[in-house]
Amino acid sequence: MTTAIRIDDLNFAHPGGSVPALERVSLTISTGESVALLGPSGAGKTTLLALLDGRLHGWRGRVSVLGAPLDPDQPPPRASRPDTGFVFQEFALVERSTVLRNVLNGRLGRMAPLRALLGSPRPHDLDIARTALTDCGIADLAERRVDSLSGGQRQRVAIARCLAQEPRLILADEPVSNLDPTRAGEVLALLTGAAQARGATALFSSHQPDLARRFAQRIIGMRNGRIVFDVPTSELQDEATAALYREAEPMPGSGLRAVS
Ligand SMILES: Nc1ncnc2c1ncn2[C@@H]1O[C@H](COP(=O)(O)OP(=O)(O)OP(=O)(O)O)[C@@H](O)[C@H]1O
């Protein structure tokens, strides 16, 4: 089995950050795995996903994504960018554009630079975008403007855009945080099912251990920038997840414990 992500002794502090955001993180994820990151607020989940997406610099350690080493001082080469798709917690959609246009934006990295600049997709790009819309159950919304959609519909658009990119690795930062439990299950089923159908690897963060259990084959627990457990889902003990959240640090100045 090939390796999608390999991390050895990764350490990172955000500029101006008072504590390390990632400390001595090591892990290997095989191609085709669906893996969930669990952990309380501030555990380092977003930081890890952003780093794997090539958006952070100045870290220490060794990281390779889809067989290519990441450089802590340089963004990844443009040619490799489309292979990694990212689903942002806040969707990052173009609000005044149509759903189809937003999903076609996922194709930009696969187009010749001039075509991408002109925003003129090939029929092939349109086919792929429409397939992604259908797979996400929103083909009927293609011509709607994003700013007229509900949160759940936007979430699906964000996933369709990611799928249209035809990524080999899908990174998703709390992709269902804005959804009710039923919709959240549907959307995670969609994300992990689409990844599996395409032979892609999926790594997503979540605050919902029950959903992580249902849709990930493996669960990584993080706390204070460190991995505290990394187990196949079938071996995850309730006590391990409870401890992950129970021991959350008090929120500074609030007198309250952070809850997720
Ligand atoms: N831009 C930033 N500048 C300084 N520190 C940051 C920045 N972003 C995150 N941090 C710090 O890095 C640590 C990890 O934060 P991160 O956002 O990765 O956690 P998280 O597990 O994704 O939390 P959440 O579940 O709330 O999204 C925290 O201590 C946080 O305060």
Automatic annotation (TrEMBL):
GO cellular component, one term: plasma membrane
InterPro entries found in the cross-reference section: AAA+_ATPase, ABC_transporter-like_ATP-bd, ABC_transporter-like_CS, ABC_transpr_LolD-like, P-loop_NTPase
GO-annotated molecular function: ATP binding; ATP hydrolysis activity; transmembrane transporter activity
Pfam families recorded: ABC_tran (PF00005)
UniProt xrefs under SMART domains: AAA
Location of the ABC transporter domain: 5-249
Highest taxon listed in the record's lineage: Bacteria
Keywords per UniProt: ATP-binding, Nucleotide-binding
Keyword Zinc: no
Ranges in a coiled coil: none
Name used for this protein in its record: ATP-binding cassette domain-containing protein
Source species of the chain: Aquicoccus porphyridii
Origin organism lineage: Bacteria, Pseudomonadati, Pseudomonadota, Alphaproteobacteria, Rhodobacterales
